Protein backbone atom coordinates (compact mmCIF):
# COMPACT_ATOMS: atom_id res chain seq x y z
CA UNK A 1 0.00 0.00 0.00
CA UNK A 2 1.33 3.40 -0.92
CA UNK A 3 0.25 6.47 1.02
CA UNK A 4 1.17 9.80 -0.54
CA UNK A 5 1.15 12.99 1.54
CA UNK A 6 1.18 16.45 0.02
CA UNK A 7 0.24 19.93 1.13
CA UNK A 8 -1.88 22.54 -0.60
CA UNK A 9 -1.60 25.74 1.44
CA UNK A 10 -2.70 24.69 4.93
CA UNK A 11 -4.45 21.47 3.85
CA UNK A 12 -2.73 18.10 4.29
CA UNK A 13 -3.75 15.82 1.43
CA UNK A 14 -3.54 12.07 1.96
CA UNK A 15 -3.82 10.01 -1.20
CA UNK A 16 -4.35 6.31 -0.70
CA UNK A 17 -2.80 4.48 -3.62
CA UNK A 18 -4.31 1.05 -3.13
CA UNK A 19 -7.26 -0.58 -4.84
CA UNK A 20 -8.45 -2.12 -1.57
CA UNK A 21 -8.58 -1.13 2.07
CA UNK A 22 -9.31 -4.38 3.86
CA UNK A 23 -8.15 -6.47 6.83
CA UNK A 24 -4.65 -7.32 5.51
CA UNK A 25 -3.89 -3.62 4.95
CA UNK A 26 -5.38 -2.01 8.07
CA UNK A 27 -2.27 -2.06 10.28
CA UNK A 28 -0.13 -0.61 7.51
CA UNK A 29 -2.78 2.01 6.76
CA UNK A 30 -3.10 3.16 10.38
CA UNK A 31 0.67 3.06 10.99
CA UNK A 32 1.22 5.21 7.90
CA UNK A 33 -1.69 7.65 8.09
CA UNK A 34 -2.27 8.41 11.78
CA UNK A 35 1.16 10.06 12.29
CA UNK A 36 0.65 12.14 9.13
CA UNK A 37 -2.64 13.62 10.32
CA UNK A 38 -1.82 14.07 14.01
CA UNK A 39 -2.33 17.70 15.10
CA UNK A 40 -3.40 18.75 11.59
CA UNK A 41 -6.26 21.24 11.30
CA UNK A 42 -7.27 20.53 7.71
CA UNK A 43 -7.03 17.05 6.19
CA UNK A 44 -8.28 15.81 2.83
CA UNK A 45 -8.42 12.10 1.99
CA UNK A 46 -8.22 11.58 -1.78
CA UNK A 47 -9.59 8.11 -2.49
CA UNK A 48 -9.33 8.22 -6.28
CA UNK A 49 -7.67 4.80 -6.68
CA UNK A 50 -9.63 3.03 -3.96
CA UNK A 51 -12.24 0.60 -5.31
CA UNK A 52 -13.04 -1.60 -2.32
CA UNK A 53 -13.37 -0.97 1.41
CA UNK A 54 -14.50 -3.59 3.92
CA UNK A 55 -15.78 -3.00 7.45
CA UNK A 56 -12.26 -2.89 8.89
CA UNK A 57 -11.33 -0.28 6.28
CA UNK A 58 -14.35 1.81 7.29
CA UNK A 59 -13.25 1.49 10.90
CA UNK A 60 -9.74 2.64 10.03
CA UNK A 61 -11.06 5.69 8.19
CA UNK A 62 -13.35 6.44 11.14
CA UNK A 63 -10.31 6.26 13.44
CA UNK A 64 -8.65 8.91 11.29
CA UNK A 65 -11.77 11.08 11.42
CA UNK A 66 -11.85 10.76 15.22
CA UNK A 67 -8.16 11.67 15.45
CA UNK A 68 -8.57 14.84 13.38
CA UNK A 69 -11.74 15.82 15.26
CA UNK A 70 -10.01 15.24 18.62
CA UNK A 71 -7.30 17.67 17.50
CA UNK A 72 -10.03 20.25 16.65
CA UNK A 73 -9.37 19.74 12.97
CA UNK A 74 -11.55 19.31 9.90
CA UNK A 75 -11.43 16.35 7.53
CA UNK A 76 -13.01 15.86 4.12
CA UNK A 77 -12.98 13.01 1.59
CA UNK A 78 -12.89 13.36 -2.21
CA UNK A 79 -12.73 11.32 -5.41
CA UNK A 80 -14.81 8.49 -4.00
CA UNK A 81 -15.62 5.59 -6.28
CA UNK A 82 -19.37 4.96 -6.62
CA UNK A 83 -19.20 1.58 -4.88
CA UNK A 84 -17.25 2.98 -1.92
CA UNK A 85 -19.53 6.02 -1.68
CA UNK A 86 -22.57 3.73 -1.56
CA UNK A 87 -21.01 1.83 1.34
CA UNK A 88 -20.15 5.08 3.16
CA UNK A 89 -23.73 6.29 2.71
CA UNK A 90 -25.11 2.93 3.89
CA UNK A 91 -23.18 3.24 7.16
CA UNK A 92 -24.02 6.96 7.28
CA UNK A 93 -20.41 8.09 7.18
CA UNK A 94 -21.57 11.02 5.04
CA UNK A 95 -23.29 12.35 8.18
CA UNK A 96 -19.96 12.79 10.00
CA UNK A 97 -17.56 13.74 7.20
CA UNK A 98 -18.10 15.86 4.10
CA UNK A 99 -17.62 14.04 0.79
CA UNK A 100 -16.87 15.66 -2.56
CA UNK A 101 -16.63 14.42 -6.12
CA UNK A 102 -13.37 16.23 -6.89
CA UNK A 103 -10.32 17.47 -5.03
CA UNK A 104 -10.96 21.01 -6.25
CA UNK A 105 -14.51 20.97 -4.90
CA UNK A 106 -13.27 19.72 -1.51
CA UNK A 107 -10.50 22.34 -1.36
CA UNK A 108 -13.00 25.11 -2.09
CA UNK A 109 -15.06 24.01 0.92
CA UNK A 110 -12.36 24.21 3.58
Automatic annotation (TrEMBL):
Belongs to the anti-sigma-factor antagonist family. NCBIfam families: ant_ant_sig. This is Anti-sigma factor antagonist. SUPFAM superfamilies: SpoIIaa-like. Transmembrane segments: none annotated. One of its GO terms (molecular function) is anti-sigma factor antagonist activity. Residues 21-110 form the STAS domain.
Amino acid sequence: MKIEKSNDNDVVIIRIESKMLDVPKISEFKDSVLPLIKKQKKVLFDLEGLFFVDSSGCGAILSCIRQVNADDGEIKICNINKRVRTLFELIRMHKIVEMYNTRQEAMENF
